[in-house]
Design goal:
Helices cover 41% and strands 17% of the residues. By secondary structure, it is of the alpha/beta class. The strands form 2 sheets. An 8-stranded parallel barrel has the order 1-2-5-6-7-8-9-10, surrounded by 6 helices. Strands 3-4 form a two-stranded antiparallel sheet.
């Protein structure tokens, strides 16, 4: 069953999904599987797996000059998705991104995913490279998520990117995308950002997952405005518990979201990271209960650095 089918079939039932991060290259998958062991007990609707573009590293040469080259620091998302699917029999949703990939690279990803029987994708532009001031498309790649959606839809229709017919088309991919209740950092305003979301839906996106937020009011207002604009696809809230004191300043900067004043007041009272973690669990639990009260039954959790907190929150909600 695809993620779209799961969402639509069980829209009246409470269910969870989780995002996990592939381990750094060389550290193995033991920690990742230990985390998923905990999450799998909660019977998630699906698990999505992030991906990251290659990064530039600089190596000093014997003559003192520096050589710049691209490296990937994490195992392939496709391999991790296949391993999770085989080991846990839970639907998986790998991220497929524009950043760091050519159209041909993406086409090979689609071929591999189809061969593995993985049919759910979260399509994203991806973050700009750390060394760049703005997003720069890879030569021969896509500049926008909308371009990526067009490629996947064309693949679903039985054509490679160059227009060549696919002799034996396989099962079509379901398409999920991201959205931003507090707008994407590069969007000029929320209205324009929501117009981009409408375009993604019109091109073929079937559901959206939000960036993390701590203020439910912003999610409710975002969904209301989306419906007024004709965005009818499901919009799944993305939630992440606070886990450390430092996140009071790090999270808003990294994820471009506000910390509600009520939460900020409580965080500054915390003396230790454990105090902050317990507060994060309490806040997130109440946040989810309020979402339930407003008829939201699909909740997506970002688990990076917060697996145990997410497990405790979901157990309280079951």
């Amino acid at each position: 069953m695809s993620v779209t089918e799961i969402i639509n079939k069980h829209e009246r039932e409470r269910q969870f999904s989780f995002e996990v991060l592939p381990p750094l290259k060389g550290t193995g998958t033991g920690r990742l599987f230990a985390d998923i062991d905990k999450l799998a007990e909660l019977k998630p609707a699906f698990i999505n797996i992030t991906t990251h573009h290659s990064e530039y590293v600089y190596r000093e040469l014997p003559d003192g000059r520096f050589e710049r080259s691209r490296v990937r620091r994490r195992p392939g998302t496709i391999a991790i998705a296949a391993a999770i699917q085989q080991r846990y029999h839970i639907p998986v949703q790998p991220h497929v991104i524009c950043s760091g990939a050519t159209i041909e690279d993406i086409e090979y990803e689609l071929i591999d995913l189809q061969f593995l029987g993985i049919r759910d994708l979260l399509l994203l532009r991806g973050d700009k490279a750390k060394e760049d001031s703005r997003f720069t498309p890879t030569p021969g790649g896509h500049a926008h998520t909308t371009d990526l959606i067009r490629q996947v839809v064309r693949f679903n229709d039985g054509f490679f990117a160059d227009g060549t017919p696919i002799k034996q088309p396989g099962q079509k991919f379901d398409i999920g995308v991201a959205c931003y209740p507090e707008k994407h950092e590069e969007a000029p305003n929320l209205e324009r950002d929501m117009q981009y979301l409408k375009e993604k839906q019109d091109l073929g996106a079937q559901y959206a997952v939000t960036q993390l937020f701590f203020d439910n009011r912003k999610y409710f207002e975002f969904v209301e405005r989306a419906r007024e604009m004709g965005i009818t696809m499901p919009i799944i809230p993305g939630i992440k518990p606070m886990a450390k004191l430092s996140q009071l300043t790090v999270v808003p900067k990294t994820f471009h979201c506000d910390i509600p004043e009520a939460l900020a007041r409580e965080i500054v009272k915390c003396k230790t990271d454990e105090d902050a973690r317990r507060l994060g669990i309490e806040w997130t639990t109440e946040q989810c209960r309020e979402l339930y009260a407003h008829g939201v039954n699909n909740i997506h959790f970002y688990t990076v650095s917060a697996v145990d907190s997410v497990v405790e929150v979901t157990r309280r909600l079951l």
